[in-house]
Each structure stands twice: as C-alpha cells, then as structure tokens.
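Here is one chain, start to finish.
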Amino acid sequence: MTLSALINKGGFTGSMTATPATQEADKPGTVAPVATVAVAGKPEPLPELPPDEEANIRTWLAHIEETDSAIIAEVVDKCRIDLNVRRYFLKRSEEIPKPATINHPIICGECIHFERITEPFRHPHLGHCAKGEPEAIIGLWDTDRRYCERFLPKPRQTNSGQPRPVRAETQR
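Its structure:
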C-alpha cells in the first residue's frame, strides 16, 4: 500500500517520519535526511463555557458599566467559540475588587436574611439564615452576635412607617 493511500484512508493519525530515497547520478544509493511530517487531524473541540466563568465575565462587564445587551451577548458568544478571547475576559474579570467584609460581630435579627420560624410553631426570637450560614439545630436567636460575610442590614423603620436610610455604622 502506498503512503498516499494510507493517508487517504486515515491510516496515520498524529505525526510520522518519512525517509524519501533519492538517487543522484554520480552517487547511487544515497538517502535524504529524515524529515518530520505533520498529519492534520481533527481539531479538538473547544470545551464548553462553564456557567461560573460566564457569570464572572458578565460580572466584569457589569463592573465596567456595560449595559448594551447586544455587546454583552457578542462577548459571551465569542468566549464560547474562541479560547484566547475567553482567557482574556477571564483575566479581566479577576480585576474586580472583592467586596468588603464586615469584620465586627453583627446581630442576626438585624440582617435582611434572617427569617423567623413560623412552622410548625411561631417563636418570637428564633429564626434561620436564608443564605445557609451555619447555625444550631433549632436555628438562630435574633440577638445572636456573630461574624457573617453575608450580613445585609434591614432598612430601619421610622415612626411614620417609612424606611429610614441605614447608616454605614450600625454596630458599636
């Protein structure tokens, strides 16, 4: 079988070496140096864009205040089909500053994520964290003081019933 027939049938995958023989007029029987031949194979499929990476790219676009849905869709589509574009935007998404964490104890009952227990009984002080923060089996007491990265203060009510703006420093 000839080399071209093997290549056409797909008999070679990967790379191979070929040693072509040449015959010169004054030196019979010399052989050319070995050459490497690359055989084109099927390109590897691009891995799918994972949801967390897409979310990071969209978060970066929001961070730079890109609101045009056509541009956002175009960027995400290019990230799906081009690995270099994907790497670029993922690198840019690392530039987003991390949110500041509260480094002092908070009170669970003052958090927007604190949900009072109503089923099967109502308790005036017990509740659960809607964000799944660790808690005791029976739940959290509304006056518990703890460190929590997911704390968001509830809007405070005034006597008129309207929410009062929350000051940056809610704890002492």
